[in-house]
Amino acid sequence: MKAFFTIAMLCTSNVFMTLAWYGHLKFKEMDWSRNLGLAAIIFISWGIALAEYAFQVPANKIGFKENGGPFNLLQLKVLQEAISITVFLVFSFIFFKTEKIAWNHFVGFFFIVLAVFFIFKKW
């Protein structure tokens, strides 16, 4: 149950992270944000990133083996990276329809998934 909860919280945090890092690139299409300067965009992104931390930090605390969770530190990090790239791919397909995903992107994503496999493999 802690593994599922940790992964769900990591997914949620990565949605907020992706919105904070890349969502502002779509602000120019929204009436309310057309005249905002860079400082305002930074503060809005920080506000969104605060929600990311509200999920990321507890996910790591709950999921960490030394706190009774199922994952060691390396597993948490690689899992987070795989979730991050997955969320980003979904985000780019939905919000940036002009972005094209080529075969080399899929190869790179495959290697990230392979990294998760090897990090979780018991030798």
From TrEMBL:
Coiled coil: none annotated. It comes from the Bacteria. Keywords: Membrane, Transmembrane, Transmembrane helix. The chain crosses the membrane at residues 36-55, 76-96, 102-120. This is DMT family protein. It comes from Pararcticibacter amylolyticus.
